[in-house]
Amino acid sequence: LPCVTVRVFSLNCWGIHYLTKHCHERFTMIGEMLCKEEHDIVLLQEVWSEKDYLSLKKKLACSHPHSHYFKSGVIGSGLAIFSKHRIHDTFIYRYSLNGYPYMTHHGDWFGGKAVGMAILNIGSLIANVYVTHLHAEYCREKDSYLPHRVVQAWELQQFVRNTSVGADVVILGGDLNMHPQDLGSRLLRSYTGLRDSYLETAQFDGCENGMTLIADNLFINKKDLVPFEKGIRIDYVLFKGSSKTNVYCDSMSTTKGSVPGHPFPYSDHEALTVELRMESHTPPEKVAELVNTVTEARTEVKVGLHCAERMRYTATRTGVMGLALLFLELAIAAVPWLALGAEQPFPRTSFYLLAALCFAILVTTSLLYIFYTMELKSLQEAEDEMRLALGSLQERLRGFPLAQAHNCSPEAQEPIAFEPEE
């Protein structure tokens, strides 16, 4: 198999018109840079306006003749792919959980966070290329979205595994909104076998520790990075080969918070450029480590389940109280009808205001009950899938021959607390 080299580019474009700074100018800069650099594959996130995508498509028509914009949600998925190589097929999967509709100041729920897949032919190789954007963290100490992000990571790894069976090469890029050692990140890499370009690269040129959200970026509020003063690494290009193809990362680079010749950066995130070289390899499985990771993920999802159940119970209880108040009002309203000549005991204005309040409580709690029920079902589905997967992994681990266990690293030989099958 001849050696094939591919350059992959990934960037969260921060493309919210009227809310982000210099949006139009930055997309112009991005288009000019992509024309000049001529990457093989370009993976973009937060291209929220289809007009921006069409503008880039027109500008990149010569350098990247093949492209696709993934549509999803109220304002779109924000995901786009441009390629030198022909795109044979595309598919989008929208995550079942993506924040809360009433957290309007965060806005994630309104964006159809998803994973987009494109199947390319790179020479004689079939490449499955994925671009994704997961829910933001906002507050690391009190991360109420952690169960949602773990479920998104779980669905992402399932989607990648189940759609890449026939692929020679798998490439995933995007803003995962997770630190390298976060649970969702470990779950994704452990289960799929995807490797991190930053950890695998032979040559690196970029921000310290591969950070992609840095304090030196003009668009970054340093308070948002606390407790990480210099920055964090949440954008990735992950890759893996197959039974007949191995992939090596020869080099990786990131932008460094400024663009020479321009007054501001491309985005609030740093851009990643990765050069991959493809040959032949069979990756080993680390089942013991994977069992631990899935167990931890399942535990986190159970925490989210209990929280959702508690919130649904609170909504139900509040709704019942509102209903009781409404019935009480109806009883009071019936007094003049039952006792002829009796006057209404409450002032009419107060009576109507209280009735409106009761009705508002009923409507709000009903909507919240429906939402939390949907959240519960998604979390329960993910927990059930993890339970089945864990049982399968445990069977595989028990079935390993004893001789193979002696070749494992000391970490892999540590005893694992198996959970009894349900």
From TrEMBL:
The chain crosses the membrane at residues 320-339, 351-372. The keyword Hydrolase applies. It comes from the Eukaryota. Its cofactor is Mg(2+). Its EC number is 3.1.4.12. It is a multi-pass membrane protein. Its main location: membrane. It is an enzyme of class 3 (hydrolase). GO terms for molecular function: metal ion binding; sphingomyelin phosphodiesterase activity. Residues 10-269 form the Endonuclease/exonuclease/phosphatase domain. Keywords: Hydrolase, Lipid metabolism, Magnesium, Membrane, Metal-binding, Sphingolipid metabolism, Transmembrane, Transmembrane helix. It holds the Pfam family Exo_endo_phos. It catalyses: 1-O-octadecyl-sn-glycero-3-phosphocholine + H2O = 1-O-octadecyl-sn-glycerol + phosphocholine + H(+); an N-(acyl)-sphingosylphosphocholine + H2O = an N-acyl-sphingoid base + phosphocholine + H(+); 1-hexadecanoyl-sn-glycero-3-phosphocholine + H2O = 1-hexadecanoyl-sn-glycerol + phosphocholine + H(+); a sphingosylphosphocholine + H2O = a sphingoid base + phosphocholine + H(+). One of its GO terms (cellular component) is membrane. It is found in: Membrane. The keyword Signal does not apply. Pathway: Sphingolipid metabolism; Lipid metabolism; sphingolipid metabolism. One of its GO terms (biological process) is sphingolipid metabolic process. Belongs to the neutral sphingomyelinase family. This is Sphingomyelin phosphodiesterase 2. It comes from Anabas testudineus. The lineage of its organism: Eukaryota, Metazoa, Chordata, Craniata, Vertebrata.
